[in-house]
């Protein structure tokens, strides 16, 4: 089995990492987990591991926004019944993306930020043609009346 990696749960899986990331949310989830029956606890742990891995793959800003959304979701009184209903379903789809407000970055042109801006920009090398030159074929691809190709 050369090249095959084993996924190991280090430090107790999702829960110990969640305690480091958000202690308040970890306490809430622990109390929810303790109220579940043993077979639903297994399902809860499997789904929580999947979701926590998905959350750790998010960019930092998105992960922070996701954790605050989950904290607000679990702080509502109907959250435990929602968790129980979710565990009864056969399918589970983790959340991979969360809409979040990006901090406004420097909107200056990338070339100006890197110090590579040139005076005149792209338009500097473009020739300007007058109508008379165009009728004489001033740089157009097909010149004259003897063109036998197709367009």
| Average pLDDT level | 75
Give the class from helix and strand content and strand pairing: mainly alpha
The helix-strand sequence is HHHHHHH
Individual helix count: 7
| Basic shape | elongated
Uncertain runs are 4-9
Radius of gyration: 30 Å
Helix content: 40-55%
Distance between the termini: 58 Å
The total of beta strands comes to 0
Main beta sheet: strand number and arrangement? none
Strand content: under 5%
How would you sum up this structure, described in words?
The chain is an all-alpha fold and 151 residues long. The chain has a domain of 79 residues. Helix content is 50%, strand content 0%. It contains 7 helices and no strands. Helix 2 crosses helix 4. The radius of gyration is 30 Å and the shape is elongated.
Key terms:
elongated; mainly alpha; 7 helices
List the helices and strands and how they pair.
Blueprint: H1 14-21, H2 23-35, H3 38-56, H4 60-74, H5 79-88, H6 110-114, H7 131-135
Helix pairs in contact: 1-2, 2-4
